[in-house]
């Protein structure tokens, strides 16, 4: 089910209890360069290594923090207050720097360097690379699901063409996505791409990258490992807030990856296949009225957050219904460790 605009039934009597936002880090340098890449020298990237947050990436997250301030200015204090907000980051430099930049935009009138940023468990907010069981499931999906088998077969000549010119081993969606990512970033900073790329980028490789994003959490078993621990944490947090709003933070922020957002959207059945943009984000609002406590969800890619519906729910998703809808997906961090590590 694609994400789409829905008519909100929020009224003036409804109370906002808490907000959770998950955002992708800002623009980064490519995580890899193909052998014939004309821009693989670090001099083209201000001396930064691979996978590092750029200055523009920092600006993107400052602006996202400003957006959050404008959206929730009446809900959140103007100055940082311990116990009101918590920010957690995936354990990579680009994510930590993105979290810091977000806070700079959120609290423009104070020194945010002293605000604590927690390191997320890889079960809750990771790159998926920490779980061997997930890797096996992913390989099974791409090699056994007819939809992805057909895509790979139909594009075998495309893969061969890219291998010939890039000298990079492109044989499937994952490796095609790696090439797309590098070209996408280089085109984004206005570098002239090699002539050979014209026939495959952006159109052909973007379609393959979109299919790769879909394959990340295509099955329920994948969703359990890639989204289950986060959903478990989200639901437990919302239950705690609804029971006693003063007992925990009003706002939780997570600095994550594109794979996190793609997997969460797919698990929600709110995913139109695409590769989530830098600084894109998911927003969850917990609200309460005289009858019920419910959740609203939004996806922000461009300037504004677009309402989305979650699996088994209307836009106003009763918290109990949300818990029931994902009861087959949620797992604890301990369960994740057993499945992935032990």
Briefly, what CATH class of the largest domain?
Answer: Alpha Beta
- Helical residue percent band: 40-55%
Number of structurally distinct domains: 2
CATH architecture of the largest domain: 3-Layer(aba) Sandwich
Strand content: 5-15%
Biggest pleated-sheet summary: 8 strands, mixed
Keywords: Disulfide bond, Glycoprotein, Hydrolase, Signal
Family: Belongs to the histidine acid phosphatase family.
Protein name: acid phosphatase
Enzyme class: hydrolase
Q: Can you offer a commentary on this structure?
A:
The protein is of the alpha/beta class and about 350 residues long. The protein folds into two domains: about 15-130 and about 220-340, Phosphoglycerate mutase-like (Rossmann fold, 3-Layer(aba) Sandwich); about 130-205, no CATH class. The protein contains twelve helices and eight strands. The chain has helices at about 55-70, 95-105, 130-145, 145-155, 155-165, 175-190, 205-215, 220-225, 230-245, 260-265, 320-325, 335-340, and strands spanning about 15-25, 85-90, 120, 250-255, 280-290, 295-300, 305-310, 315-320. Strands 1, 2, 3, 4, 5, 6, 7 and 8 form an eight-stranded mixed β-sheet that branches. Helix 2 (about 95-105) links the parallel strand 2 and strand 3 (about 120). Helix 1 packs across helix 2 (about 95-105) and helix 3 packs antiparallel against helix 8 (about 220-225). It starts with 14 loop residues before the first strand and ends with a helix. The relative contact order is 0.19. Residues about 1-10 have low confidence and may be disordered. This is acid phosphatase.
């Amino acid at each position: 089910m694609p994400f789409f605009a829905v008519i909100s039934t929020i009224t003036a009597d409804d109370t906002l209890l808490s907000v959770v936002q998950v955002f992708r880090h800002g623009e980064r340098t490519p995580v890899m360069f193909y052998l014939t890449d004309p821009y693989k020298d670090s001099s083209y990237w201000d001396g930064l290594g691979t996978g590092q947050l750029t200055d523009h990436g920092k600006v993107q997250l400052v602006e996202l923090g400003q957006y959050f301030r404008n959206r929730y200015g009446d809900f959140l204090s103007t100055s940082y207050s311990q116990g009101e907000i918590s920010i957690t980051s995936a354990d990579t430099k680009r994510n930590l720097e993105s979290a810091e930049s977000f806070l700079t935009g959120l609290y423009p009138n104070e020194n945010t360097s002293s605000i604590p940023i927690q390191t997320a468990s890889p079960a809750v907010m990771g790159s998926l690379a920490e779980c061997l069981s997930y890797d096996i499931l992913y390989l099974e999906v791409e090699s056994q699901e007819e939809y992805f088998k057909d895509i790979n077969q139909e594009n075998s000549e495309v893969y061969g063409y890219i291998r010939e010119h890039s000298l990079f081993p492109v044989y499937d969606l994952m490796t095609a996505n790696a090439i797309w990512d590098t070209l996408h970033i280089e085109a984004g900073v206005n570098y002239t791409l090699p002539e050979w790329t014209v026939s495959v980028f952006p159109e052909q490789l973007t379609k393959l990258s979109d299919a790769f994003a879909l394959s990340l959490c295509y099955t329920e078993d994948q969703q359990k490992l890639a989204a289950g621990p986060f959903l478990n944490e989200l639901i437990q947090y919302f239950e705690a807030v609804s029971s006693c709003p003063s007992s925990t933070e009003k706002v939780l922020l997570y600095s994550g990856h594109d794979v996190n957002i793609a997997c969460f959207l797919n698990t929600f059945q709110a995913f139109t296949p695409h590769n989530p943009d830098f600084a894109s984000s998911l927003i969850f609002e917990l609200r309460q009225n005289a009858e019920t406590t419910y959740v609203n969800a939004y996806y922000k890619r461009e300037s504004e957050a677009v309402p989305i519906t979650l699996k088994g729910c209307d836009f106003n998703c009763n918290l109990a219904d949300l818990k029931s809808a994902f009861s087959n997906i949620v797992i604890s961090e301990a369960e994740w460790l057993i499945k992935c590590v032990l």
